């Protein structure tokens, strides 16, 4: 049956800005990048350290998707981290706004949220 998540697909509003965010700020490596002339669209596959991938797309005139207030659909994308304070400090040093750290009342694990350039909610979850 299911073996895990292979990839998460993200449609961005400004492809160069989002590609820079995911590669330069978050440090993801480009596996493959293609411009699809027939769709006037980029598709960039980015490697996550655990073998998963993020597919970054651009589509001309893609409509905005509400994130806040929370809307139905995918709520957020969560990344596992070993040291939450270290990653939060790094993001703040790179001018990324980060919410205050919280503790999950059920798992007692620490987590926080930040956003990508299109305001997609991203979570850091400390192992």
Automatic annotation (TrEMBL):
Keywords: Metal-binding
CDD domains reported in the protein's UniProt record: VOC_Bs_YwkD_like
VOC domain boundaries: 4-127
Transmembrane region(s): none
Pfam families in UniProt: Glyoxalase
Metal-binding recorded as keyword: yes
Keyword Metal-binding: yes
InterPro entries: Fosfomycin_Res_Enzymes (IPR051332), Glyas_Bleomycin-R_OHBP_Dase (IPR029068), Glyas_Fos-R_dOase_dom (IPR004360), VOC_core (IPR037523), YwkD-like_dom (IPR037478)
Highest taxon listed in the record's lineage: Bacteria
NCBIfam families assigned: PRK11478.1
Name of the protein in question: VOC family protein
């Amino acid at each position: 049956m299911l073996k895990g998540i292979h990839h998460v697909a993200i449609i961005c509003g400004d492809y160069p800005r989002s590609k820079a965010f995911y590669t330069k700020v978050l440090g993801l490596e480009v596996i493959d990048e293609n411009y699809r002339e027939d769709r006037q669209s980029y598709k960039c596959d980015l490697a996550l350290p655990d073998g998963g991938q993020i597919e970054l797309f651009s589509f001309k005139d893609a409509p905005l998707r509400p994130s806040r207030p929370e809307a139905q659909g995918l709520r957020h994308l969560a990344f596992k981290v070993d040291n939450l304070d270290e990653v939060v400090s790094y993001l703040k040093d790179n001018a990324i706004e980060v919410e205050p750290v919280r503790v999950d009342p059920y798992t007692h694990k620490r987590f926080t949220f930040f956003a990508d350039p299109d305001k997609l909610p991203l979570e850091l979850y400390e192992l």
